[in-house]
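Note to self: keep these together.
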Amino acid sequence: MTDVAGIRPRMSVVIPHYNHVDLLPEALDAIARQTMPPFEVVVVDDGSTDESVARLESLATKLPWLRICRHPGNRGVNAACNTGLDSVSGDFVLFSAADDRLSTTMIEHASAAAAAFPQIGVLFSDHAEMSADGANTRIVPLDLPTARRRFSSEEFVRLMQSHFFYFHVSNVWFNVALLRQLGGFPLEVKWHGDLLAAYAAAFERGAVYTPDALSYVRISPTSYGAAGSRSSAQLDVLRSWLELTRRPGWERRRAALVAAAVWPDYRLRAVRALVEDPGYVTLRLARRLVWLSIWTKLAPVFGTGLRRWVRAVRTQYRRRLWHMH
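Structure:
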C-alpha cells in the first residue's frame, strides 16, 4: 500500500503480555499520545495470573484501537507474537514489549517510511533504552546516516559486514505479508526468534533505516532475552538457529546470514554450537567472535563514561564516512 490519494499504510502494534499489569498502562498511554494513532493495537495476554485481563478490559473501553487476545495458558513470547501476527490486519506490525515505551512520533515517522517503501522487509531505527524504573533514557546510535535511508537486500548484507549491529526488535516494523510468509517467529529459537525473523526479512526484501522512529526498551538483567542468553539452554537454542537455517527454502537467507557473519551469540562458549555446523563459519565470523569476546571482557574495565566517549567518537567517524560516499 502506498500514500496515494491520502491512503497511508496501516500500522499495527502487537504487545505480547504476561503478568505486567503495573507496566502495561504506561505502554498503552505512550501509544495513546502518538502524533499519529495506530491502525490497531492487539495485546496478546499469554495466560497471565495477575489482574491483567480485568485491567485490559477496562482500558479497552477507553481506547477504541485496542483489541485483546487471550491464551488460556502460558505458551511463551514467540507464540504470543505469532497469535498477534495472525490477528492483525495492518500492512506493517511492531512487536512491542509490555514494558516498552514508544516515542510520541514513532508511528508517524514509521508510517511515512512505510508509505515511501511499501514493499520493504523491515523498518528499523536507532537503539533506544530506558532504565528499569523508566526514569532515565538514552539513544545509542547505529552509526548510520542521520536521514532516512533504504538498503536493498544486497546492501544490507554489506552493511552487516562493515557496520554490524543487533536489531532491537522493539524498534523494528515488519512487513506483515512477508513475515507471514517467513512463518512468524520460530518457537524453537526462543529468545532469538524475533532477531532471526528480523534479519531474514531484511535479507529477503531489504530494510529502511528511520532514525526518528524510536521505542525505548526497558533494560533489565531479568528480561526474557537477557536471562535466556545466560541460561544453560542457550547452546540448544543456538543449535536450533543453525538447524532452522538448513531447512529447505532457507538457502538464500542462510547464505546472507553466513556472508554477513550474523550470529546471535558472539561469546566464545557459543563456539560449541558452531563447530557442529562448520558451513556457517567464515573468517569474518571468526574475527568478529574473537573481537567481540575480547571487548565483552574488557569493556567493564573502562567504565561507562569512557565507553560512551569511545562510542561517540566512532559514531562521528563512521557518519563522516557516510557523507563522503
